[in-house]
Amino acid sequence: MSATSAARKGHERADTDDDAVALATALARPTLDETAQTAISRLAPEVEADEVLTAAHHLGVGPLVASHLTDADVPAAFESRARERCRATGVRNLSFVAELHRVLSAFADAGLRCLVYKGPVLAVSAYGDLSRRDFSDLDLFVPPGDVPEACAVLESLGYNPWSENGTAVTDAESLVSRAAERTYFRPSEDTPERTVATRRPPSVGVAVELRWRLGTDLRPSWLTFETAWERRTEVLVGGRPVPTFSNEDTVLVLARHGAKHYWNRLGWVVDVAAFLSENDIDWDRLRARAARANRRRILHACLLLAAETADAPVPAEILADARADSNVRRVVIDAQGFVASNPETAAYGERGRRRRTRYELQLCDTRRQQVLTLCRLAFVPQQADYAAVSLPDSLHGLYRVTRPARLAVKALRRRVEPR
């Protein structure tokens, strides 16, 4: 069964909890407005607290919804379960913060620099409270030249490299030339022994995403570490300053991440709205950086989604420009429709090759960028290419030949197979 089919089946099973999903969605915004208050009064008596919190978790806004429910006029059972959820999230996130400072101290002792983003930094800078946002790993941005030493430091702290197919890649030098990130995982005493390869490390333990290029195969790196380091700011996390991206770069990083996953998860949009609500943004600087990086449409789609979905404070002239762009409007409408039709299973949903190609082209700022995107879609190897053909490192360049061949065979099969 494909991920899309699974998502549809999951949604069919969730139809009886439509009121819970509606209430969780209404509460998924930085501050509650009159519409949210009305939804609480109308829907809270009709649903169970656990149903609402479960729906909010799948939407990626579980802690935020729980925190709102602790302050709202809801049945006692709601408030009790919401407070329990907030406490559990806070305790778990504090353990991540302690581990973050342990890693940063080890990096500092080794003379290594890094920028921390998303995770606990975003929880504090966007929501003002570690208990109001879930995160499952620690995201670190490091200079490419420091990757081998950074990997060694993580391994000295008990972390092991993790890959999607369950194998370990230990050659950090070749890794830098072929990828943009690496996952490291440190199991806890309660981590079950891994018997089956999974897409993500187990939920018990700590994962670190080590990244040295910002971008994807389709949209190459747009911000170097040195530039980001020069523009960095600091956020107090657990009482200690943590270096992170400037406010404007943070918005672009969040926009990039949302675009990578089609904005399939409501929480990614709410993160942007919450960050804009709590931080000063130089809007002219932000738009100029987006234009220089050929990410103007990505930024506009992100801001329009955040404003329409979670009341993000975006200047009217920027929203007008976004709405005037038909490509941006189509991306936003598609994202809103997909989450609405698959509310509990939308995250990381697959779109199909043709739909994905159209989406990628809609977010290109120029004709030249569209041509380059089509070339990358045809020749830049993806995870499916590595899974289809196993080549040694010395022949890695041949994946640029095997990929178009594999796509051609798939296209031919679709034409000859009966419908």
Automatic annotation (TrEMBL):
<protein>
    <recommendedName>
        <fullName>Nucleotidyltransferase family protein</fullName>
    </recommendedName>
</protein>
<dbReference type="InterPro" id="IPR039498">
    <property type="entry name" value="NTP_transf_5"/>
</dbReference>
<dbReference type="Pfam" id="PF14907">
    <property type="entry name" value="NTP_transf_5"/>
</dbReference>
